[in-house]
Amino acid sequence: MTGSNEFKLNQPPEDGISSVKFSPNTSQFLLVSSWDTSVRLYDVPANSMRLKYQHTGAVLDCAFYDPTHAWSGGLDHQLKMHDLNTDQENLVGTHDAPIRCVEYCPEVNVMVTGSWDQTVKLWDPRTPCNAGTFSQPEKVYTLSVSGDRLIVGTAGRRVLVWDLRNMGYVQQRRESSLKYQTRCIRAFPNKQGYVLSSIEGRVAVEYLDPSPEVQKKKYAFKCHRLKENNIEQIYPVNAISFHNIHNTFATGGSDGFVNIWDPFNKKRLCQFHRYPTSIASLAFSNDGTTLAIASSYMYEMDDTEHPEDGIFIRQVTDAETKPKSIEMKSCEVKSLCFDYELQEVKANLYFTHRLNFWKQARQTLPCSGLPDLRIGERKKTDPRNGAAGTLGKGDTITPPPSSVNCQVN
C-alpha cells in the first residue's frame, strides 16, 4: 500500500537490508547496504540504481563521508571506501570480527567503526588510515555521533560516552535504563542527548548532562506493541532516525509500523500504514522532507516465508514531524512578588497542559490585568489588600493568562 506521497524503489537488494543513509547535502542520493554483500547508490527522484559495489560478506552498515565517497563494513571484517564518481574502491583496514557500525563525525573529521571484536576504531578519511583503536567492554551493537562526542551501545546493556577529541578515557559509563538488549542508539541533532531502543518494544529518551536536575528529565515509554486475540505482542524497535530541524524522531519496529515522536511533549505525532514486514532501517534526509524506510524481514521467527524486502521513499510534512504547541489547562501559583511602583505581580508559576506534564515558568502580570483573572470561581481583587480572593501561593488560575508562552524543554 503506497499513496501519492510514497513510492517503492526499483531494483532493491536481493537479501536483507541492513542500513539506509541519505547523502549529507541532498535527498537525491540514498546509500543502501545489504546482506546480499552489496552496497547500492540510488538516485531517488529518478527511482533508479546509480551504482553497486560488493564486499565478500554481508554488509552491516554504510555511511557517506562526503557526497562522493561511501564507506562500508560487515561480516568480512573489511572497511571499504568507495569513490562514487570513479567507481574505484579502497580497502582502508580491518577489524578482528564483523564491523557492525560505520559513522562519520564532521566536527572532528573522522570515520568511526564499531565491531563485534569489542573495539571502536577511528579512521582519517584524508589518508585514509587508522587513527586509533579503543577497547569497549562488550561487542558493539550500535553507535551514534553527537557533535564531538560518541555514544556507544554494547552487549550487556552498556552505554559509553566518549569525547572524540580525547579518546584517552571514557567520559561517561552508563547502563541502559531499559531491561532488555539494546538495539539502536541515535543522538539528538541539538546534541543534548540520545534515544535508545530495545528488543522489548521500549524506547528511552536520555540526556548527556549528568547533573541531577537534567537527569530528572529522562523517561522511557512502550511502543511497537500490538494486541492480537487479547494477547499483547511485543516487537523489537530496530531503527531510529531524527528529523534534523524539529528534533523529533521516527522509530521502526518488527511490527511493520513507523511512528514519529515528539520527545519534548512526550507524544506520538503520527503512525504510518503497516509495511509488508519488519522495519530494519530508517533515514530522514538532511532537510527533513523525505524519509527512507527499509522494510526487510529480520528473521525474528527464523527462516520462514516472508514478504519481499523493499525500500519505501515517503515525502513527509510538518504536520507529521513538527512538535505541536502546548495547550495549557491551568497554572498553580508557587510564589508571588508585588512591585507596587511598576504595578506588576511577578509570579513563579507551574503550568500544566493537556498531557498533564508540569513545567515551571516565571511570568510577570500587570496589576491592571489581575481583576480579569479567576481563582477557581472567585473574582480577583486588589492584590495588596489581603482580602478574600487575593491571588496567593498554591492557588490555581483557570484559564491561565493569555500572555503565557511556555515551552517544554
UniProtKB/TrEMBL annotation:
GO terms for cellular component: kinetochore; nucleus. WD repeats lie at residues 92-124, 237-262. Its main location: nucleus. GO terms for biological process: cell division; chromosome segregation; meiotic cell cycle. This is Mitotic checkpoint protein BUB3. The keyword Cell division applies. Interacts with BUB1 and BUBR1. The BUB1/BUB3 complex interacts with MAD1L1. Interacts with ZNF207/BuGZ; leading to promote stability and kinetochore loading of BUB3. Keywords: Cell cycle, Cell division, Centromere, Chromosome, Chromosome partition, Kinetochore, Meiosis, Mitosis, Nucleus, Repeat, WD repeat. Pfam families: WD40. SUPFAM superfamilies: WD40 repeat-like. InterPro entries: WD40/YVTN_repeat-like_dom_sf, WD40_PAC1, WD40_repeat_dom_sf, WD40_rpt. It is found in: Chromosome, Centromere, Kinetochore; Nucleus. Belongs to the WD repeat BUB3 family. The gene is PSTK. Residues 375-409 are annotated as: Disordered.
